[in-house]
Design goal:
Order of helices and strands of chain B: HHHHHHHHHHHHHH
GO biological process, one term (chain B): transmembrane transport
Oligomer: heterodimer
Family (chain B): Belongs to the binding-protein-dependent transport system permease family.
Strand content of chain B: under 5%
Number of helices of chain B: 14
Number of domains of chain A: 2
Distance between the termini of chain B: 32 Å
Largest interface: A-B, 117 and 117 residues
Main location (chain B): membrane
CATH topology of the largest domain in chain A: MetI-like fold
Largest sheet of chain A: none
Helix content of chain A: over 70%
Radius of gyration of chain B: 27 Å
InterPro entries (chain B): BP-dep_ABC_trans_perm, MetI-like, MetI-like_sf
CATH superfamily of the largest domain in chain A: MetI-like
Order of helices and strands of chain A: HHHHHHHHHHHHHH
Subcellular location (chain B): Cell membrane
Shape of chain A: flat
Structural class of chain A: mainly alpha
CATH architecture of the largest domain in chain A: Orthogonal Bundle
CATH superfamily of the largest domain in chain B: MetI-like
Chain lengths: 318, 315
């Protein structure tokens, strides 16, 4: 009967209102253990993520230069000049438009290709597991290696794409994929599609596996053609997943820095806000302006995350 | 019955076996046409996708073993000739800088050290935190869940400004310790998220049975929960390793000034602009950067895709 004393207080504590349970009860001990286990992680996140983001707000209202950083006071002398400058510069609005085009097209392309891939690979065939795993490679491969090899592939002098284009496809002259408008923007969007479609592919494959086969079979029995089955049975089931995927991909593409910085350095009409933030921070050493533009990104992001939270993660974060 | 119904989609000759209600009869009903077209299209798509995704990797390996001069003479050839095969590119990229090479061994050691450190710290924090989120009721649990979701979705460029300013001010730019902590802050949210989902699938009754038998919370975690969650913890560790090994932005911000502290990613990106280093040598560097990830990925693909799709039922 060793179990009885342990079990009964536990059951009682469950039924009781948490507010009335006092010290020493199992309920209280559970809360204490929980707080003790979660606090290191929470402290780390607060110190390394939340505080820095709040500090960005302070920095955005200061006139701070990188060269004077060692000596400058970190608080005081607030000004809205950074925002006036940022919003007053045509470069910023151009970058915002580029960011939106890049994020919108990149999201649509990668989710679209992911959907096509998931549908094509739906039915088993020999070697499917291997092909499926291979399709995920662009997503897990290091971004620096991927951008480098793309850069060489698209190189106008000896890149394979131009070699094939001029030799086999009859192009008049090599195309400078990464240094001409508007080709450069299209190229970085295609790269984004290549790199991110595996993410959509993976999630949509999982969703397709969960879809009950009986519905589609019933429709086939009733004489529906394959495209009709897709349009009326499969597509409605996938739609919620596609919506969440599109939102997630948009959030990440909107803030993507690595790909564009490594492919074009932000040149030839591909300067997105995140690359601009980096340039203002490191090249120009203008911390205030960099922070102000980072805040614009953060604001858009907060809106999107709120949408995501409302929309998709309602029961997830319980 | 099920067999009969699914058959038409598989084999073009199947319409005869279909139930009589379907508009079959003629040899070229809409269903037959669509099935045939889609059947062909499917293989076209699969082949196209495979080429599209894998060609850059093949090209990477190809260029890394081709001799530079023969590459420039015949850049369009897609297979290496035996006469031009070389491993000199790998030798050059791995040789220490003092001996005239690019010193990638050193960079790999840096990357490995940082990645392993990140994995260790992330896992300790994430296992404790996610267990608490999955199992224990404590005040503020919901808020913590929302916080981690927000952190998971917040991109690194937003942290770049304040962390760069902060570490510059403290004179800690270039130190590996703070960088590991920054990496942990980037990976911890996703680790907590997936591990919590996993812990929730482990039936609480097992733990309750142990508690009934008098085991303490600590004993339960160590003897029961952790062994059960080992696959998830392992896949999380691998996932975190990949993120840290691949990371570029923070390495660029913090380590760029001192070549001896570069990671492989940073080294390759810095050397890529140089005209003195042949492209083939840098391709060898890319292979060195990519290979560990590809090997790890294929070795653990099952574990990893399971972990990646753990959040897939969100929608």
């Amino acid at each position: 009967m060793t179990g009885a004393p342990a079990r009964s207080p536990r059951r009682r504590s469950r039924d009781r209102d948490p507010a009335t349970s006092g010290r020493g009860t199992l309920r209280w001990r559970e809360a204490r253990t929980g707080l003790a286990l979660i606090s290191p992680t929470v402290v780390l996140v607060l110190v390394l993520v939340v505080l820095p983001i709040l500090w960005t707000v302070v920095l955005a209202f200061q006139d701070l230069r990188l060269i004077r950083l060692r000596t400058a006071g970190l608080f005081g002398d607030y000004t809205v000049e950074n925002f006036v400058d940022v919003f007053g510069s045509p470069g910023f609005w151009q970058a915002l438009v580029t960011t939106l085009v890049y994020a919108g097209c990149g999201t649509a392309a990668s989710v679209g290709l992911g959907l096509v891939a998931a549908l094509a690979m739906r039915r088993p065939f020999r070697g499917r597991t291997f092909v499926r795993a291979s399709l995920l490679l662009p997503y897990v491969a290091p971004v620096v290696a991927a951008t480098f090899v793309w850069g060489v592939m698209l190189n106008p002098q000896f890149g394979i794409v131009n070699e094939v284009g001029t030799g086999l496809l009859g192009w008049d002259e090599p195309i400078a994929f990464l240094s001409e408008r508007p080709t450069a923007l299209v190229t970085v969007i295609v790269f984004e599609m290549w790199r991110s479609f595996p993410f959509a592919f993976l999630f949509l494959t999982a969703r397709l596996q969960a879809a009950p086969a009986t519905l589609e079979e019933a429709a086939q029995v009733d004489g529906a053609t394959p495209t009709q089955v897709f349009r009326h049975i499969v597509w409605p089931q996938l739609l919620p997943t596609i919506a969440v995927l599109a939102l997630l991909r948009f959030i990440w593409t909107f803030n993507n820095f690595d790909d564009i910085y490594l492919l074009t350095g932000g040149g030839a009409g591909t300067e997105v806000i995140s690359v601009r933030v980096f340039d203002f921070l490191v090249s120009r050493g203008d911390i205030g302006a960099a922070s102000a533009q980072a805040l614009v990104l953060a604001t858009v992001l907060i809106v999107l995350v709120t949408v995501y939270h409302r929309f998709a993660a309602k029961d997830e974060v319980a | 019955m099920t067999r009969m119904v699914t058959a038409p989609a598989d084999a073009p000759a199947a319409p005869d076996t279909r139930p009589s209600r379907a508009p079959a009869g003629r040899g070229w009903s809409r269903t037959t046409v669509e099935t045939r077209v889609l059947g062909v299209l499917r293989w076209v798509v699969i082949a196209g996708l495979a080429i599209f995704t894998l060609f850059p990797f093949y090209y990477m390996v190809l260029l890394s073993v081709r001799d530079l001069s023969s590459l420039l003479q015949d850049p369009g050839r897609l297979w290496p000739l035996l006469s031009e095969l070389t491993v000199g590119t790998y030798r050059e990229v791995l040789t220490p800088t003092e001996s005239g090479g690019q010193g990638f061994v050193r960079l790999m050691a840096n990357s490995g050290l940082i990645a392993l450190g990140t994995v260790a710290v992330t896992l300790v924090f994430a296992v404790l935190g996610s267990y608490a989120l999955a199992r224990l009721r404590f005040p503020g649990r919901r808020k913590v869940g929302v916080l981690f979701l927000a952190v998971y979705l917040f991109p690194s460029i937003l942290l770049a400004v304040p962390l760069f300013v902060f570490l510059t001010r403290l004179g800690l730019r270039g130190a590996l310790g703070p960088l590991v902590l920054v990496y942990v802050s980037q990976t911890i949210a996703v680790a907590v998220y997936t591990l919590r989902n996993y812990f929730q699938t482990v039936p609480a009754s097992i733990e309750e049975a142990a508690a009934v038998d008098g085991a303490s919370r600590f004993t339960i975690m160590r003897r029961i929960t952790l062994p059960l969650a080992m696959p998830a913890i392992l896949s999380n560790g691998l996932f975190v390793f990949m993120i840290a090994w691949n990371e570029f932005l923070f390495a660029l911000l913090f380590l760029v000034e001192d070549r001896s502290r570069w990671t492989v990613s940073l080294g390759l990106s810095q050397l890529a602009g140089s005209i003195e280093i042949p492209t083939t040598v840098l391709m060898a560097g890319s292979v060195i950067l990519t290979l560990p990830i590809v090997v790890l990925f294929f070795a653990t693909e099952r574990l990893l895709t399971g972990g990646l799709t753990a959040g897939a039922e969100k929608g």
